[in-house]
Amino acid sequence: MDNATLDRIRQDIAQNPVVVYMKGTPAFPQCGFSAAVVEIFSELKVDIKAFDVLVDPALREQLKIFSNWPTFPQVYIKGNLIGGCDIVREMYEAGELQTLLEEQGILPA
Q1: pLDDT at residue 2, rounded to an integer
Q2: Are 23 and 72 in contact (CB under 8 A)?
């Protein structure tokens, strides 16, 4: 295990309300799943801190271990792994994502 990378992951998710580890960047997503997650947060007008796992192989591998989640994107809200694209999309469509973001003080109620 790469402790420096794990420390960086812990710091990133502790310091940012919404973190998305994705393929590509919000401006240029490199997969449809990452693009869909960025679009959902954009629709909600929620700022995300995004990290491109394609440019950092160590980050990509350590995240799979850290989260016990093998795919990307990975969405963290207030330090907790929410899941990937399908879960975020389902939560958004059901209104659960908006409720969670309101409860966490990220979206105005």
Answers
A1: 73
A2: yes
